Amino acid sequence: EKLYRYMKDMMDTEGIFLEPSACAAVHGAVCMNTESETRRYLEDNQLVSRMANTTQIVWATGGGLVPQTIRDDYMRTAAELEKDS
């Protein structure tokens, strides 16, 4: 479900279509400040104060060769998930 939500968010905010599996890397950036292990890493390496000036880059490939009918199916799935939440 998260992958479809990330896919829709990317399309809605950036106008970039990524297939759902390509959105898996997004979760790492999303969790930068919420996961205790990541927070501990930032603290251990004195990076917490620098986070306000960082840019998270997500390497996401895939989407350019997905046929339009499948893209439409993916977007419908994302819309259904949004409606159900």
Secondary structure blueprint with pairings:
Elements: H1 2-14, H2 26-30, H3 36-44, H4 68-84
Word description of this protein:
With 85 residues, the chain is an all-alpha fold. It has one domain (1-84). It is 52% helix and 0% strand. Helix 1 (2-14) packs across helix 4 (68-84). It is elongated. GO terms for molecular function: lyase activity. This is D-serine ammonia-lyase. Keywords: Lyase.
Describe what is shown at a glance.
The protein has 85 residues and is mostly helical. Helix content is 52%, strand content 0%.
Global geometry: elongated
Helix fraction, binned, reads 40-55%
The rounded distance between the terminal residues' Cα atoms is 11 Å
Q: How many strands?
A: 0
Main sheet overview: none
Helices, by number, come to 4
Radius of gyration: 15 Å
- Strand coverage percent: under 5%
Overall pLDDT: 91
Count of discrete structural domains? 1
Order of helices and strands: HHHH
Indicate the structural class. mainly alpha
- Determine the oligomeric state from the structure: single chain
Unreliable stretches (pLDDT < 50, length at least 5) are: none
GO molecular function, one term: lyase activity
Protein name: D-serine ammonia-lyase
InterPro entries: TrpB-like_PALP_sf
GO biological process, one term: alpha-amino acid metabolic process
